[in-house]
Design goal:
The chain folds into 2 domains: 177 residues, 2-Layer Sandwich (60s Ribosomal Protein L30, Chain: A); 112 residues, no CATH class. The protein has 12 helices and 15 strands. It has 380 residues and is α+β, with helices and mostly antiparallel strands. The termini are far apart. The radius of gyration is 31 Å and the shape is elongated.
Length: 380
């Protein structure tokens, strides 16, 4: 009988575990109960949490001693101080955090709270990553080959958050038996152009497929067989260095730390972006296109001035811009001046703008301030 050539994803249910157990015996029994057998070339995805429980990597929260540093971090980020302490203990690096979570690097993965998990475990406990996930994956692969007489690849799976996206997806915490990244650099694309930077994370792609049937809640499916993956197996040792990237080469880490745009340049970029989305507003008045471009960082989409500046040239441009919103030849009462300025700025200080327009010669007025009118004097 001809074997199917398409990728096959086979979920394997297994008993819920709370204490150390024999993972290979459990896998063997679960395969039997599911009516499945391992085949040479299969990739078996195993929950990293299930693996960690089998290794005794659970911890009672009431046995954790909380340091002053952990208390400060917990207060800053509204966290349970015990969890903050566990993160400090387990993470290779802590970047920062938000309400309830710290962003960390752990075993080559950037993830919340160093992978510490309190779901699907008795109350008052937490599950940590394996002490050395890649060594665990290699050990499991070796035991499967020895005890089940099958040559397979192994992935320890975990959940991950994509930056800027809602919801979790799968990520390979560790692999054994195959190279987790396929280098496509130098190969042609559809139009014959050589790829320059593309490297496919095939291990992460397989985990994402496995997570569809593994689930995140009460599915009790810690094993998934991935068959016909067309992945070539190897006995070469695999480590986190085969998948992780230096932080100064990581687009997320570097861009959000040392590569972060300064405020003035970020404002300029945002202003140009906004103008690219929306046609430029009318009301540029007497400013040239170049002059108008210089004040774009100070304007919102409606053309309102969002902040003031002490820079003489920029202030002169902004004052000219505001002056040009007044009609030539019209006389304004002070209240009308105030209303117009309120409509053309957002930082709530129309009195300062009115005074600067008058003192700078952009508006003239009666001595008693009862009437104002626009001047046509050019200062830029």
């Amino acid at each position: 009988m001809t074997q199917p050539s398409h990728l096959t994803i086979i979920p394997i249910a297994a008993p819920v575990q709370h204490a150390p157990f024999n993972l290979i015996d459990t896998l063997r029994d679960s395969l039997t109960n599911a009516g499945e057998t391992l085949q040479d070339g299969d990739i078996i995805a195993i929950s990293s949490k299930y693996t960690a429980i089998s290794e005794g990597r659970t911890i009672k929260l009431d046995e954790i001693t909380v340091s002053e540093t952990a208390r400060k971090i917990a207060e800053r980020h509204s966290m349970n101080p015990v969890i903050a302490q566990l993160v400090i203990n387990e993470a290779d690096h802590v970047f920062g955090g938000i309400h309830g979570f710290l962003l960390t690097a752990k075993d080559g993965i950037i993830s919340p709270n160093a992978g510490i998990d309190r779901s699907n475990i008795p109350l008052g406990n937490a599950v940590l990553f394996s002490q050395d996930p890649y060594r665990s994956a290699a050990r499991i692969r070796g035991e499967i080959r020895q005890q089940l007489s099958t040559n397979v690849g192994v992935i320890l799976t975990d959940s991950w958050l994509m930056p800027g996206r809602l919801g979790t997806t799968g990520v390979a915490l560790a692999v054994a038996g195959f190279y987790p990244v396929k280098d496509e650099r130098g190969k042609p694309d559809l139009f014959g152009n050589p790829l320059v930077v593309t490297r496919r994370s095939v291990a992460d792609q397989l985990v994402a497929a496995a997570e569809l049937v593994m689930g995140e809640r009460d599915e009790a499916t810690p094993f998934v067989l991935l068959r016909n993956t067309r992945i070539e197996l190897t006995d070469q040792p695999i480590t986190k260095e085969d998948v992780s990237i230096a932080w100064d080469e990581c687009i997320y880490v570097e861009s959000l730390t040392r590569g972060l745009l300064p405020d003035d340049l970020q404002a300029a970029v945002q202003a140009e972006h906004d103008r690219a989305l929306d046609p430029p507003i009318e009301g540029r008045g007497s400013l040239s296109a170049d002059q108008y471009a210089k004040i774009l960082p100070f304007l919102d989409r409606e053309g309102r001035v969002t902040r003031w500046t002490t820079h003489p040239h920029q202030r002169a441009l902004l004052l000219t811009y505001l002056r040009d919103q007044f009609e030539i030849g019209r006389v304004y009462k002070e209240g009308e001046v105030n209303d117009l300025l309120k409509a053309w700025h957002t930082f709530g200080d129309h009195a300062v703008l009115r005074r600067e327009l008058f003192e700078g010669g952009y508006l003239n007025r009666e001595k008693d301030g009862s009437a104002y009118w626009r001047t046509n004097t050019t200062f830029v």
